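Quick illustration, no need to memorize.
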Amino acid sequence: RLPPMILQNKTIERYVEPFVGGGAMFFFLKSNFKIQESYLSDKNRDLILAYEVIKNNHEELIGELGEIEDSHLQKSEIERKENYYRIRENYNHKKVDYDLYSSQWIRRVGYFIFLNKTCFNGLYRQNSKGEFNVPFGRYKNPRICDEENIRQVHISLKDTQVFYGDFTESERYIHKGSFVYLDPPYRPLNETSNFTSYDKEGFDDDSQRNLADFFKKMDGRGAKVMLSNSDPKNQDEQDDFFEILYENFNLERV
C-alpha cells in the first residue's frame, strides 16, 4: 500500500510520522527502504525523551535498565508489586526539565521503559493530572533491558530528527513528495472501548476532524499521505464518520 514510486525505487526522500508511538511503521521502513530524511514526533513527552536518550546515550541507558532489571527480578511477587508502585510514584512526582538534556533523562527513561514492560498489558495511559496510572501487571520474567533492540533503535535514529509536539507541528517538514504516515489515537467504537486517554487531553471527534483537515492540506501540498483508524461500521453500519471526512480519498478496509 506504499506509494508506487517508493515501492519501485526502495527509497523515501523524506518520511514524516507525527504520531510515532512505538514506531512500528518507521522501523519497518528503515529496515526495508533507504530513507534519506526522517522526522518523528509525538505528544507524549516521555516517549520523545526515550527516543532522544536512545539516540544519544543508548549504552548508559542499557546500564541503567540492566540494574533496574536485576534488582526487580530478584524480588518476590509481592516485592515486585511494591517496587512497581514505588517507581511509578517516583516517575509521576519527580520533576524533570524536558528542555535541558541531563543524566536525569537517563534515569527517567529507565523508569519509563520499566513501567511499560511491567505494567498491565503494556498500556500507556494518563489521568486528568497527567499522571501515569496503569496498574501492575503480573509477568514471570519480563524483558526490561533488551540490549539488542535498543542498539538497533539507536542505529535507526542516528540520522533522524525527533521532536515533541502535536501533529500540526510537523507541517513545516512536509513538502511535495514527502511520505506522511498518520496513526492517531483511534476513534472508539463503543463506550467500553473508549480509550482516548493516551494523554490527559484525549483525542475526540473534533480532534479527528482537525486531523482530516490537516490530511487534506498536506495532500494539497503534494505529499503522499496515509492514515490508519478504527472502522465504526464494525459496530454500526450507519456510522459514516470517516466516509464523510475522507470522501475524496481511497478508504480501504482491513
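The chain has a mean pLDDT of 94.
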